[in-house]
Specification:
This protein is mainly α. The protein has a domain of 52 residues. Helices cover 57% and strands 0% of the residues.
Length: 76
């Protein structure tokens, strides 16, 4: 007899968007909201925000900072 997953596991599964509702647009909107509207990134410099969003342990953060700041026409 299979047991049911704990309530927290069931809850987590129900909060995910269905694959049919995931689009590049909804992904970009979620990314914008995280980076520009959430308190976790408020007041951070571009370098600090990118370091938090894309840590050097997983990304070439320096290159990411250069690409963003060059695109914005500002210094890092």
């Amino acid at each position: 007899m299979a047991s049911s997953p704990p309530p927290t596991a069931r809850r987590a599964r129900t909060k995910k968007a269905s694959p049919s509702s995931r689009t590049p647009e909804t992904g970009r909107a979620a990314q914008r909201s995280l980076l520009f509207d959430s308190p976790q990134y408020a007041g951070l410099s571009i370098r600090e925000a990118i370091g938090k969003y894309a840590p050097a342990s997983e990304n070439d953060t320096g290159a990411y900072v250069r690409r963003v700041t060059n695109g914005l026409g500002v210094g890092p």
